[in-house]
Amino acid sequence: RLSQYSTGTETEDEVEEEEEGTVLSQFFIVDKKKVDTLFRRCQECGGLIDPTSVEWKQVASALFATYQCTECKEWMIWESQIKKGRGKSKVFQLNQELPMAAFVTGCPIPRLQDTCDLLKLAVPKERSMREIIRVYACPAIDRVHGEMERFVRNLSKDAAPQLVDDGFKIRTRVSDSNAMVDKRLRENEKLKGIETKRDFWHVQKPLRKEWWTGMKRSDCQRLLEWYKPFF
Questions:
Q1: How crowded is the C-beta side of 120, counted as CA atoms within 13 Å?
Q2: What PANTHER family is this protein classified in (predicted)?
């Protein structure tokens, strides 16, 4: 990815995303000499590039180069990956996706790093990956989970009215004891005639607690004999 920038101005993201290190050529999938040949001529005007102006920097799995054209005098920056985000929150795509993929698949960060070291692949440091998980992955998962909760909640509220509108006659509903839900159903003209029944599971839950408390008393020992058969 190629873009222009003003002379002497650092891009705002590299230092914040991860400490810039020296270019580690052993991590290149393509030999660096082959990469250098791509920076002989300016991709804007075709003029020659000053070879002494080409500066390489590495940000974890990403690589970028800055250089100046001898013809148009423009300073250019080439990046091996696209960036995601806005403003100062921009990060290189793979630097963000690697720790997030490890997080959602349950892969421990040290195991990911060991695997990448074995394959000679550069990855962000463990501290940076955990920071990305905290800043990006966890809020995103919480947001998606919240949206799904709202979807299920709205679906459950709209299910009975929709069935009535479709011509179904609902005589009984079985649920736990919820005063707010009962009140909402009574106030709805379509649903107020539906009889409410309590299922055994929700009925026995509070009874089980009281039973367990009562059978500890010395005068209620026979409750212990009936506890297991009943519950």
A1: 7
A2: PROTEIN CBG10204, SI:CH211-108C17.2-RELATED-RELATED
